[in-house]
Write a structure and sequence with these properties.
This protein is an alpha+beta fold and 335 residues long. It folds into 2 domains: 94 residues, no CATH class; 224 residues, no CATH class. The chain has 8 helices and 10 strands. α2 runs parallel beside α6 and α6 runs antiparallel to α8. The two termini are 21 Å apart.
Length: 335
């Protein structure tokens, strides 16, 4: 389960003779060089040993075991390639087989990293945008309620605890991606609109949002920046869709009511709705371009539409189900 406020808100091979130098090669070039070094090492073992002898060597996380010309190559004790009938002359077959094994492992590893980066960006941005466009709505009485407790307004301490929880989750994701530590105590940046007693409305100032997103980009490996950026965009759009639909629904429900609460909503909700509609439209275009650049073709981005924001409403999950979940499936390789 993702943290969210929505519901309650260098490898040496061949006995060390053939080092792989990463240098500035691309990932594909590095895999080709690694396959070359392993296959050269295997061929050298065959050339130097008696016919039919066993083959065995290990270097770093790679090991090769074989007998009577049949080889198995392991990465961290996991078999990544089997080469039956190897002999000194079929070096190219060794290369082709090994590179294919690397590619299969690479896809699984990269899918995991891409998803981790996306999730880090999503969680961080969805939290940083907890108050997007909501200043005017807060003047009209909007607040974040605990849907599991009769919509009682969440107070500052609880909101700060939620921000701290997301900080820890994003920091763990970054450590898994880059093994680097990052201090993300979002509670330090959390501010509140306090137009009504006991109804604090949380938000993050613009400079804090940019600083924390910069912190994320600095910590994420270069190869994952696009996925973290996609997550940050989708996290912000999740807020825009949620708030836009909820405010539209509440305003629609109060359209013909003569009481003071309805008057406040009719006065203060429209500016927030206009802000959300404008931002959501701009972000929709950004998302289409980003998805196209990454090869994600099956996105159905929902329009903003009013819905009843209560525990029994499923419309509040429309964006999550049609966009966020679809991107996660794509990154996992499920489509």
């Amino acid at each position: 389960m993702q943290n969210s406020w929505i519901a309650s808100i260098v490898v040496a091979c061949g006995a060390g003779l053939f080092p792989l130098t990463a240098g500035a090669q691309s990932a594909d070039e590095q895999r080709a060089l690694l396959a070359r070094d392993i296959c050269v090492g295997v061929a050298a073992k065959f050339a130097n040993g008696p016919p039919g002898s066993d083959i065995s060597f290990q270097s770093g996380k790679f090991s090769v075991r074989g007998a009577n010309g049949s080889l198995t190559i392991f990465e961290n004790a996991v078999s990544i390639a089997n080469i039956p009938g190897f002999n000194y002359s079929n070096y190219n077959n060794c290369l082709d087989t090994l590179i294919s094994g690397f590619e299969q492992n690479r896809r699984a590893s990269e899918a995991k990293s891409h998803l981790e980066a996306f999730s880090a960006g999503y969680e961080l941005s969805e939290t940083l945008n907890v108050g997007i466009c909501m200043n005017s709505a807060a003047m009209g009485g909007y607040y974040i309620g605990d849907m599991q407790n009769n919509n009682v307004p969440l107070q500052r301490q609880r909101l700060q605890q939620l921000a701290l929880s997301v900080s820890k989750s994003v920091s763990r994701r970054i450590r898994r991606l880059s093994a680097s530590a990052i201090d993300l105590n979002l509670a330090d940046d959390l501010a509140f609109y306090s137009y009504y007693a006991d109804r604090p409305v949380p938000y993050f100032p613009g400079d804090a949002i940019q600083r924390r997103l910069d912190d994320l980009n600095d910590a994420i490996p270069d190869g994952e920046l696009d996925y973290a950026g996609l997550g940050a965009l989708v996290g912000r759009m999740q807020r825009e869709h949620l708030y836009g639909g909820a405010l539209m629904g509440m305003l629609q429900a109060m359209q013909f009511r003569p009481d003071e609460r309805a008057a406040r909503a009719q006065t203060y909700f429209p500016p927030s709705i206009q802000c959300l509609v404008r931002n959501y439209g701009d972000d929709t275009n950004r998302l289409r371009r980003a998805a196209n650049d990454l090869g994600i073709s099956r996105l159905s981005i929902p329009q903003l539409a009013p819905f009843s924001f209560d525990a029994n409403s499923s419309m509040q999950y429309t964006f999550s189900n049609s966009v966020t979940a679809e991107i996660r499936r794509f990154l996992k390789g499920d489509q």
